[in-house]
Write a structure and sequence with these properties.
Aspartate Aminotransferase, domain 1, single chain, Aspartate Aminotransferase, domain 2, alpha/beta, 13 helices, 14 strands, 373 residues, 3-stranded antiparallel β-sheet
Length: 373
């Protein structure tokens, strides 16, 4: 049995007729940039997240950067985030000219440690925004993070690129901070057929700034009120996202069901640590990521069985060559560094069968048994 880590074709085959009709609708109207499909998706996604506004943009990285721009964050300001994430999280901060201040993560959730954040905020008075990452679809400890932000006067921008539909204390990701940045990259829980993104917020003034910023700063055609960018969600991607959005909760429920099968089958396996979730969090398992001290050996064993597994992410951001200017050395963030050495994402996607999960678990158990002294 060959088991991919994800299978986008399986999802799109079930929706082919709806997607084809949606694309034809856009082609027939030639509303390729902005237009009615974008406006409709923005309204539907805002309603889904439980906020007043969603502003479509070109991609998830732009969603983060434009959120910072909307807050007028730039040179002289600092932004706190985590070292264990995809590079886009810190790229966006650097692209607006702000300083990156890193905060270590919690070992169980892989998300920002509020106690560490509190210490950082007490020692870095220039922090104007905090960017917690809902990594792997697991919501960060938002109650404590927002409390820290309130004490320091900082805004909170959720990096929700992997958390479409996740809940914290009953509220959706996207409605937990000042703003939230989403990516609709094809492999996400809610994915387009290319790059796409959005920012959600309950603040009407920030939403209006975002609309200007994404479209060359224009309040109306050829009237440029702000220095803006070209980062508009196009009509074709919005139409596809509208087809997929009504299925998102069902897909996420399937991901949680498969995650439970993994958790049950791998509980107690020597050398394997499986992810869990606190009672107040409802993760959506964008990735099902275990920990294993011999991660690379396990990955090679699985690959030999035709099972695709990957490390997300094998090098923390403060140790990446592109970010050496941060000035952090190895050992600066021990929890993030330990995670980078040990994480392994097993196959998980809504169309995956229970038999495939069982096969993956059997392969993991076989490897673990061979490792016993």
């Amino acid at each position: 049995m060959s088991i991919p880590q994800a299978d986008l074709l399986a999802q799109h085959q079930t929706l082919r007729a709806e997607i084809d009709a949606a694309l034809r609708r856009v082609i027939d109207t030639s509303a390729f940039v902005r237009g009615p499909e974008v406006a409709a998706f923005e309204a539907e996604f805002a309603d889904y997240c439980g906020v007043a506004h969603a502003v479509g943009v070109g991609n998830g990285t732009d969603a983060l950067a434009l959120s910072l721009r909307a807050l007028d964050i730039g040179p002289g300001d600092a932004v706190a985030t985590v070292p264990f994430s995809f590079a886009a999280t810190v790229e966006a901060i650097l692209h607006v000219g702000a300083t990156v201040v890193l905060v270590d993560i919690e070992p169980q959730t892989f998300t920002m440690n509020p106690a560490a954040l509190d210490i950082v905020l007490r020692t870095h008075p220039r922090v104007r925004a905090i960017v917690p990452v809902h990594l792997y679809g697991q919501p960060a400890s938002m109650e404590d993070i927002v409390a820290c932000a309130t004490r320091s006067g900082a805004a909170v921008i959720e990096d929700a690129a992997q958390a479409h539909g996740a809940r914290y204390q009953g509220r959706r990701a996207g409605a937990l901070g000042t703003m939230a940045a989403f990516s609709f990259y094809p492999g996400k829980n809610l994915g387009a057929l290319g790059d796409a993104g959005a920012v959600t917020t309950g603040d009407a003034e920030l939403a209006e700034r975002l609309r200007l910023l994404r479209d060359h700063g224009q309040s109306r055609k050829y009237v440029h009120d702000r220095l803006g960018f070209n980062s508009r969600l196009d009509g074709l991607q919005a139409a596809v996202l509208r087809v997929k959005l009504p299925h998102l909760d069902r897909w996420n429920a399937r991901r949680r069901a498969l995650a439970r099968l993994y958790q049950q089958a791998l509980a107690g396996v020597a050398g394997i640590e499986v992810p869990g979730a606190a009672a107040e969090r409802e993760p959506v398992y964008h990735l099902f990521t275990i920990r294993c001290a011999e991660r690379d050996a396990l990955r090679e064993h699985l690959a030999a069985q035709g099972i695709a597994a990957a490390a997300h992410y094998p090098c923390p951001l403060h140790l990446q060559p592109a970010f050496a200017s941060f000035g952090y050395a190895a050992g600066s963030f021990p929890v993030s560094e330990a995670a980078a050495r040990t994480v392994l994402s097993l196959p998980l996607y809504p169309e995956m069968s229970e038999e495939a999960v069982a096969a993956v678990c059997a392969a993991v158990r076989t490897w673990a048994e061979r490792r016993r002294p």
